[in-house]
Amino acid sequence: MSFKNNLCNDADGLAPVVGTILMVGIVVVLAAVIGTQALSVDTPDDHYERFKEITEQDINSETLPDGLVARWSFEGNYEDVTGNGNDGSAVDDVSFTDGISGQAIQLDGDSYVEVPSSESLNITDEITLVAYVKWTIDPADGDKWANIVCKDVIGEWNAAYRLQHGNSLLSPNTDFEFAIDRGGNKYVQSDDGPAINDWYKIAGTYNGSEMILYINGNMVGSDELSGPITASNGGKLYIGTDTPSKARKFIGCIDEVQIYNRALSQAEIRSIGN
């Protein structure tokens, strides 16, 4: 913010000045220089507190996409980078490797990430799930119904919502699936499945009337559906497995897992990661 003093010299003989107000972190400094003259002021405490509050609100509104409730980028940790507190923890031997951007987690068939239950993850209306995945073994050699993201419902067999793989009669993991529970498991699936060592961006959306599955931004399956998603009633969220008691673990790399409490459009899905 620039300023200019067009007044005449004051009683102390100060000349008109031109300068810049510089806002850095929590300090507001007024610097005015002409010749060898320099002025500086500190913001009063009461003004600073209001300034800090407004600035933090602006930062949050500008940096978080609408509806994003959790995002795990796996840059050497399992933190939810949205600041919503949905931090995960590793179970067994989770390691880090090159991801679609920066780092990703690598899972060996026993390891996974678990996230405690929270209100922000207990989504019952619209939802979007997004994840990047890469198999590091032949998918046919992995567990059947290998899960990418799964939100457990305590006391129920089906998950509240999930991204996973489906199976043919002869081979596991022959397609991608997006599933939600609404008094029964409802899902949409792709015609094609994953290949070894290829990255895929998988996304599932539900807007209250339709489920859609996307692979790499392309719609590959949809189905009409209505009604709320079953409340997860305290169940944890798992990345890389169904509930641990089920042998449905993913073997490979997972990156940039995101959860929204609204249904993203296809254009928004395509923009993620670009």
UniProtKB/TrEMBL annotation:
Keywords: Membrane, Transmembrane, Transmembrane helix. The keyword Transmembrane helix applies. Residues 13-45 form the Archaeal Type IV pilin N-terminal domain. Pfam families: Laminin_G_3, Pilin_N. Gene3D superfamilies: 2.60.120.200. The chain crosses the membrane at residues 13-34. It comes from the Archaea. InterPro entries: ConA-like_dom_sf, Flagellin/pilin_N_arc, Pilin_N_archaeal. Signal peptide: none annotated. NCBIfam families: arch_flag_Nterm. This is Archaeal Type IV pilin N-terminal domain-containing protein. It comes from Methanohalophilus portucalensis.
